DNA sequence: GCAAAAGTGTTACGAGTACACCCATGT
DNA sequence: ACATGGGTGTACTCGTAACACTTTTGC
């Protein structure tokens, strides 16, 4: 099928968005997967996603999917475009272009709202990435790109706070880095770097003992969009 | 128009690729623009691009456009995806999704082959970016994103060599950085950093006097995909 | 008191900056 | 000889890594 458009021909294609929704739960980086109820790849795990509607913006479509799968409708959830996948045979149903988005959400009190729990669940990202055949379509590649983006951005942006609740302690923030990077970080140097980086975290003024030990100050995220200096992934283990 | 696809409806859309083709000429970062011969935006400047064909991969489509506009058909030309733009009203002809690619090419001996010179030309990127109304569609935004990507990647990848001919001197490489970043760099510290960074440049063994003064060693690009340590954009002016 | 986690001080090291200085060519 | 750019040596500074040490809670 070819469509004429003022002297120019083009092949119409399906346009979808797929979501890499990440969170940190129980000290590990986890991704939200759904089990497909219909062909193709029926019964296999896949990233949440769906077709973009007429007159709907790409990011709006991604945000709609996110709300449908997690119940998180807030504009404050971090959502960013990662890449677009358009290999001709990637979807056996026909030509479908997929725009992948990365969403970072805090550990949700209610596991997954707005959808039936049987078909959606959190799975450790490392476990999924270890098996290239686990996911439907080219979703292994999409997940891999999304996770790598998240890892890279933690270095030079204050993005880690997107995984945290409104108020958090420095060691909770450190737990995010340790889960995403898969390595331990010296708590003392981390504390100093993070609190000194301009606009990264701002103290709330209250403390909590929920992590045990001496009470820790609570912080909320600052206004900074980039980190100076960056947190290097080589920030080694210690103490 | 809605298409049924195994119980799922989707709106078919046009899918295009647009190219941000950058080079460094006469000490400035320049972008290849074409003057549109047909509506919409007839007579306005725009990024080269076109619809993706049936059974054609996104990157293949971008590479085809690149070859058509520049005559550069080599697989060795650096080409990477930047972002996808899909605002519903971005193209007045109808719903068109555009996948933007960034291409970095050396300063071509023949200006622009494979196309009529009247309609395509190199324009300093800074000049275009200074006027948000210069380009058709949302191409100002696309160009802006592409240039920012190039600037950022010079820091942590050996990408600058993509702007160079097969063999180049360190000061020619430095000229790339100065043009893209718009700042001067200390030639002595730059020389040391670049030649010491593992896999960035490898000496050919011959020298040239084409830059004047003492003969300079010639290098070609190395195998490294990332730079350790990175070249900071704060690499200050000097001497 | 003891364990546990928060938070501070200090030292050693390595990378970045600035710049003095020498080298090899063209004119 | 002199100008021009290539290339090396080196001192200073600053961010990081490592880790000893003090603080404040729960049990």
From TrEMBL, chains A, B:
Does this UniProt record's set of keywords contain Hydrolase? Answer: yes
Any idea which UniProt keywords this protein has?
A: Hydrolase
- Residue ranges annotated as transmembrane are none
Is RNA-binding there in the keyword field? Answer: no
Family to which the UniProt record says this protein belongs: Belongs to the Nudix hydrolase family.
Q: Which organism is it from?
A: Kribbella amoyensis
Among Pfam families, the record links this protein to:
NUDIX, WHD_NrtR
Q: Listed GO molecular functions?
A: hydrolase activity
Q: Indicate the segments forming the Nudix hydrolase domain, all copies.
A: 13-148
- InterPro entries, sorted: Nudix_hydrolase, NUDIX_hydrolase-like_dom_sf, NUDIX_hydrolase_CS, NUDIX_hydrolase_dom, WH-like_DNA-bd_sf, WH_DNA-bd_sf, WHD_NrtR
Instruction: Spell out the protein name for this chain.
Output: 8-oxo-dGTP diphosphatase
Coiled-coil region: none
